[in-house]
Amino acid sequence: MQRSERLDAGREGPRSGLEARIERRILDRYVETCAPDAALAFADAEETYRSLMRRARVRRLGVAVARVPVVGAVVRRIWRGVERARRGGAPA
Amino acid sequence: MRIAWATPCERTSSIGAFSVEVVRALRARGVAVDVWGTAADDALDFDEAIQWLDPATAGVGGEYDHVVYNLGNNPVYHSGIFDAYRRRPGVVVMHDKAMLEFFMSRAATPRGWDRGRVARFVARLGHYYDGPGLAFSEVLRDPSLRTGAMVEGEHGFPLFEPCLANASGIVTHSRSALLPMADRYGDLVPSACLDLPLIFDARYRDPAALLDRGELDVAPGDLVIVIHGFVTPVKRVHAVVDAIASDPTLATSALLVVAGGAEPGYAEDLARLGSKRGVAERVRITGRVDDLTLYSYIANADICVNLRMPSTEAASASLGEQLHFGRPTIVSDVGSFSELPDGIVAKVDMADEAASLARALRELASDPAERAALGAAGRAYAVERFSAERYADGLLDLLARVEGAAGLLRVVDDRADAIARGQAPTRVREAARLAAAEIAAGGAVAGDDAGTGSR
């Protein structure tokens, strides 16, 4: 959901170009002047942050394992297949 | 008029060198300019004392008609300037069109991510581009995207927007950089595209004062191709090595000089590539050199090369140096380079880089008359456009428009700040409608400047 929708849910009707630009300025200043806590509440960043850290931990573990010879070759092959599948291509 | 000019002051900062030139030109026009900077071990000489930004308050203090903030994507040089900008509105000079790396770097600490700053970074991506989780996870998953697709193109995240939210005016150095910035707030925030002036030391601008080919240890018959400044893979030096190695004539007659420092590992990669392609003796990587040597190489070049992919800066200062010396220059057909008129530089189609670059090198190498014509046209263009005096005039014109639009912007920003402080309901559309109505009702007060926008 766009920030404007969060802040001003349910608004309707056409706007002039000037109104649209004023609205953008108001929203931008809101985001830039809010404390991080407020930004968290509005952008669902908390959950995003957790998920990113989980992903980063998994990736670090994968990299550590992949550095072991032989095991690394197998892991890299599997990882490439996973990556390709995630990007929409055929698995190796 | 009294201006506070916030800039990096380190001698190693090219934006600092830019500031020295523009501040001198402004003062020569009777403008009182105080330079504000963050602490520097080896500061540039601005003729007058520098006001140091206090890390505790990080703001510009005192009475000024305008505060001008020079912002770029190097967090070492620009974090203090950005913090000061957040505390007091002013005119921003955007030296880069992509600031994604800057804001990402601010979220990092030596021990890992700073959670609060990551939250703000993600909130920004979410607000300006939607899909914060997708965007940020893509950045983490594939760091190579940061300088490629992440900052350019339809799905890019240049993230210059935080640098505009507190801006009363916008200056940048190419039309391609200006367009998205000027479009954000339209007439509310006046903007201008000004040509970057020459910023290198005036002592080295006269070719007669520089070293000749013999002093540079260049053989008389060599075709000297020069790439100068700090090089990274973004400057595509490896593509030039490949192009030289792929052409039998160039592989035996060209001397590629890479004059300047390099990103860690890149100089070694280039040397390895030269050896692998059999042109090691045709590639000279000087490393960091003094200014006399650096500008002597440019002045003695048969061809200069100035490539970028991606293009993240608003304009290239090094291009001005190459054109100043009348050297025929090959550039990428991207960003600010694309805006140069035909006949000033030779442009490489980056969608077909290898073939296009090889063709441009071959054509210039085989045609001394074409090299001379291109160099002369570039020199004439540089003389006409790249001066600090011209820049100062353009800036003063913009500041006059900023003064004219200040009343309008105050109406909007007062309402925005009341909402942000929780002192007004967060009905944004209603606030925007009321502000627009107030501006319309006060049109006579706002004056004709209400209609001025970017130039």
Task: Characterize the structure shown.
- The complex is a heterodimer of chains A (92) and B (455).
- By secondary structure, chain A is mainly α.
- Helix content of chain A is 74%, strand content 0%.
- Chain A contains five helices and no strands.
- The model of chain A is unreliable at 1-13 and 35-46 (pLDDT under 50).
- Chain B is an alpha/beta fold.
- Chain B has helices at residues 14-28, 75-87, 100-107, 115-129, 132-141, 175-185, 237-246, 248-253, 266-276, 291-299, 317-324, 335-338, 353-365, 368-385, 388-420, 428-441, 443-446, and strands at residues 2-6, 32-37, 51-52, 66-71, 90-94, 108-109, 112-113, 167-172, 191-193, 223-228, 254-259, 283-287, 303-306, 329-332, 346-348.
- In chain B, α1 crosses α15, α7 packs parallel to α9 (266-276) and α7 (237-246) packs across α13.
- The radius of gyration of chain B is 23 Å and the shape is elongated.
- Chains A and B meet through α1, α2, α3 and α4 of A and α4, α5, α15 and α16 of B.
